[in-house]
Amino acid sequence: MAKLLIIDDESNIRLMLRLALEHVGHTVEQAGDGIEGLEKFGQGAGWDLVLLDHRMPGMEGIDVLRELRRRNPHARVVMITAFGTVDLASEAIRAGATDFLRKPFTIEVLREAVEAALSERPHLPHIANAAPQPSLSFERLGINGYRLASLPGLEHHPDQSVTKVFSVQKTEGAGRACRVTLTAAAVEQVRQHALGSPLPGGDTFWEALCGEALANYLWQNVTLPTGGQLLVEELTSGLRRWVDAVVQTAGAVA
What domains, with CATH codes, occur in the chain? Predict the structure, then answer.
């Protein structure tokens, strides 16, 4: 069993988390804000996982995350929030978070996310002073305890729609295939939204957009799409922001 640190300013949330995780054998300590959490964390020796609230008075969770990873680049951190979006989740993943939990969540989802994070090989965060860029790879994305892995190939259909298949794994169970299809209408909306700017990466762009759509679905619903099929019929505001960021980044690099 693991040694866990909970950093959250709400005492009732800390209590719920502690009881749920101690019940399955983990050793749990608590901190009421980011400063106390960093004091207890020290240089990270002996801690297997940190459960970190996003919105706290004083020091925001994302800043605490960056400091945790600066002190120990191999620290495992699960961020928790009731206010975030999948964009924030992606920012947290880039900063080194192992997973991202959206409140409210069930005890089962909490325990599965913790077990998934503990089984994950620690990874190094992006360089702290590097400009954040939208990811064109979903091999490491963790949302609500799910892990996404891109399977080879992108299907181009005669009607101009595209389909990408992902393997979605929860905890240590077998991965389940999930097909994400961008309809012809959604593909055309992407091209129109880009206003004639070239879409970078060829098939990689469409694969990553499918991954972003699936990540959004898992973020909102905390479950796989019915029948393992996700049909994207329109460009949502979140996907529009993702397309904007990718196109702008590509333009800046060019």
Answer: 3-119 (3.40.50.2300), 142-253 (no CATH)
